[in-house]
Amino acid sequence: MKGIIxxxxxxxxxxxxxxYIAKHITSVTFDPFNIAxxxxxxxxxxxxxxxxxxxxxxxxxxxxxxxxxxLPVQNGKLAFxxxxxxxxxxxxxxxxxxxxxxWNLQKYMSIWSYRT
Length: 116
Prior knowledge:
The chain is an alpha/beta fold. It is built from 3 helices and 5 strands, in the order E-H-E-E-H-E-H-E. The chain starts with a strand and ends with a strand.
């Protein structure tokens, strides 16, 4: 099974969390995709799509919303979201889940938060 984690990492902690997940979940081969620097995303090749970000003023960065809004609909694919945070996660997970839900994914595997 092939997956991708689309992430934004302002300090590097979210990138580290993505690398950790990719290394330790052995049943899925995850490709990292940095939304701030990478180009040419083709989601057709992936069965699982993850979205990850740091917490920015108690919510996910708006850059991630702009990225999600530009993506084509991927009905029926599995999805997960997670965030990293330093002190307080705020509404990051709730907002991130809502952004991805509006994108019309039909299935969620899980959502979680990492304190870094």
